[in-house]
Amino acid sequence: MPTDASEPMIDVQLVENAIDLNGLWDPIADPNCGAQLVFVGRTRRATEKAAQVLLTANLSYEAFRPMAIKELQDLLYEASQKWPLRKLIGIHRIGEVQVGEASIAIALASPHRAACMEAMPWIMDQLKQRVPIWKQERFEDGAEEWVHP
Amino acid sequence: MNRRAPDQPTAPKQETSLRTVRLFAGASEAAGCDAIEVRLGRDVSAAEVLQVIARVHPELSALLPTCRLVADQTYMAADSIIAPEAELALIPPVSGG
């Protein structure tokens, strides 16, 4: 069945390997969209906490897979209803993500820039509240901890 | 006025069933396993399920107040009644991104 042209394109993936960041631009190309925005989250090395600096060796992500995909699809669809977004891609990496590597990428396209730029922080805030994915910090001193904010 | 009411016949014991609850991240680490089994009555609410888990698995009690119960991949409000066949999961505070 052909998809209704007025429906946005939404693509959600959980991947075990490096996210293909360069491969995000073509799928969000749309002749009616004058704006594209890609957000990338990466593993950060140093985190200041209580006057000391913690050094991360890597992060390990775990997901409740089917629900994580459903929640991410739902929240991208909700974003497309709140803002006129035509293309929405959400990719989260699961498993170990080394320092400097991407753990998440959100790619958006809209006719004008305001929709992308307003939607992106909302999408990331929602993701951090409701998508069942957890990160385990592994520090350089060998300590490990699940992050439960 | 103050007469004691006649003893009521005891209600039939409520039907219970053994239900699996999947665990993730810190909850799975605290319990030392990926799933627990709890005995639940019919028509229990999400809040009651969390109470049962706290009673049977004290090792989870530190994390439980911040956990949400999920049935069939949907977050349950405290007063939601849990369907008898629903797949249950305990969701600690998430930290994706």
Question: How do the helices and strands line up, and which of them pair or pack?
Answer:
The complex is a heterodimer of chains A (149) and B (97).
Chain A: E1 9-15, E2 35-42, E3 46-49, E4 52-63, H1 65-82, E5 87-93, E6 95-98, E7 102-110, H2 113-130, E8 133-139, E9 144-146
Parallel strand pairs in A: 1-5
Antiparallel strand pairs in A: 2-7, 3-4, 4-6, 4-8, 5-7, 8-9
Helix pairs in contact in A: 1-2
Chain B: E1 16-22, H1 25-31, E2 35-41, H2 46-56, E3 68-71, E4 74-75, E5 88-91
Q: Which descriptor suits the 3D outline of chain A?
A: elongated
- Enumerate how many helices of chain A there are, as a single number: 2
Largest sheet of chain A: 5 strands, antiparallel
CATH class group of chain B: Alpha Beta
Query: How far from one another are the termini of chain A?
Result: 43 Å
- Annotated CATH architecture of chain A: Alpha-Beta Complex
User: Total number of helical segments of chain B?
Assistant: 2
Oligomer: heterodimer
Low-pLDDT stretches of chain B are none
In percent, how helical is the residue content of chain B? 10-25%
| Cα-atom radius of gyration of chain A | 17 Å
Shape of chain B: globular
At CATH's second level, what is the architecture of chain B? Roll
Q: CATH topology of chain B, which one?
A: Ubiquitin-like (UB roll)
Mean pLDDT of chain B: 90
Span between termini of chain B = 65 Å
Q: What class would the helix/strand composition of chain A place it in?
A: alpha+beta
The value of Rg of chain B in angstroms is 17 Å
